[in-house]
Amino acid sequence: MKATNMSKSITLLLLILFSSCHLLAQTIAIEGSAADLEYQKEYNKNITLTKINGVYIPGSLEEAFKRINKLSPAESRAKFQNAPEKEVCKKLHFGLGRWMIEKWNFYGGSRISHLLKTKGLLHPDDMAQFLLRSYHRFLNELPLEEEALINELAIERKRLAREAIGM
């Protein structure tokens, strides 16, 4: 009796797993598909907008830094500025970084995400890290060294991808 119940549970679990994979596969837009064309249309519109969902979207690094300055209390900025760059940016990734990803529409496209994409940053997490670390350098009046930072983030993204597939 117990073996039958266990067998039914395993069958049900496998059925749920396979049907979820099927649903997930249906949501992935294939290049040239109607979903892809709709995404591209929306993306092309978004990268021209100064506001998305009522939130101002910066069009340059300078505008992004000004916006973060305006939204952040002076005390918080001072703590951020005085902390070690990599450490503080890693800690803020799931706070301010996540806020930028969501509010500045990195997944759906925006003026700032498009700018970062043209610089070679393709993953929203890398875009957020780039902005956080560049902002830290800006506050400390250090050279941004954009190209070196982008290369560093690209190397880390490749490492994470290899790690995810077990290489």
Please tally the helical runs, counting DSSP H or I stretches of 4 or more residues.
8
Gap from first CA to last CA: 43 Å
Radius of gyration: 21 Å
Q: Please state how the strands of the largest beta sheet are arranged side by side.
A: 1-2
Report the order of strands and helices. HHEEHHHHHH
How much strand? under 5%
Helical proportion, percent range: over 70%
Shape: globular
Low-confidence stretches: 19-26
Average pLDDT: 88
Oligomer: single chain
Estimated structural class: mainly alpha
Query: How many E strands?
Result: 2
Biggest sheet architecture: 2 strands, antiparallel
Can you tag this structure with a few keywords?
mainly alpha, 2 domains, 8 helices, 72% helix, 2% strand
